[in-house]
Amino acid sequence: MSQQQKALAAPPKTLGQKIKLVLYIIFFIVLYTWCFSGMEVDVTKVRESLPVAGNIISGIFHVEWPFVTEDEGVIDNMFMTLAIALLGTTIAATLAIPFGFLAATNMSKKNRWVSSVGKRILNVIRTLPELIVAIIFIVAVGPGPFAGVLAIGFHSIGMIGKLYSEAIENMDEGAIEAMTASGANRIQIMWFAVLPQVLPEFMSYALYKFEINVRAASVLGMVGAGGIGTPLLFALIGHDWDRVGAILVGIIVVVMLIDYLSGSIRKRLV
């Protein structure tokens, strides 16, 4: 081995590093063994279920195309799903602005507890499962799209607010310091120094969350929150796999279009 190769070669591992590596390997082997032991996998049942799975897959690929365009079909319900996601995201993106400023550490340097409280509130909202939130609103206001909008809107505040606070914390504070030195008040600083910097990122994050919420609204409909999830649930219960296939095609096409359009817009914003 040449002198240069020796210089580039990794130094030999010490005994302590080798022991640590062995312990890590043993730990992960034990961890995954414990995980699989709780699965209670019955190989016989798996083998027996293969023909059933094959029938389901073949049924899904045998798409019921007339259901796509008929009344209360895929197109009508996908428009409802998009409306639920759009309204819910708009509500969340608007309400998340004060939460984002509340949670940003550089907005309350003198009172650190304020940003700490803001972060905890966003953490609590973000940790609540969307389905649980949807069920709560369904019980409160009744099943339907309105419950879906409220569920999407409330749950999205946690994630969007967190992203907003990070955008505020990462902004250039030079403009704030310059306006403060010139005697500008807090409202002027917020309007002319802070918002112009963070608004493009705010819009980008809101669009990104809208992409996610289109998928979420499709699932929330299965618990009664309106949209494409409702006919999907009935099709699954009735084993109408050809109708399930039509619904899945609609969801996939719409989600791909939303992802493409949203991604293009976000590239121009940031």
UniProtKB/TrEMBL annotation:
Residues 78-262 form the ABC transmembrane type-1 domain. It is found in: Cell envelope; Cell membrane; Membrane. Signal peptide: none annotated. Keywords: Membrane, Transmembrane, Transmembrane helix, Transport. It comes from the Bacteria. Its main location: other. Pfam families: BPD_transp_1 (PF00528). GO terms for cellular component: cell envelope; plasma membrane. The chain crosses the membrane at residues 21-39, 78-103, 131-154, 189-207, 219-238, 244-262. NCBIfam families: PhnE. This is Phosphonate ABC transporter, permease protein PhnE. It comes from Tumebacillus avium.
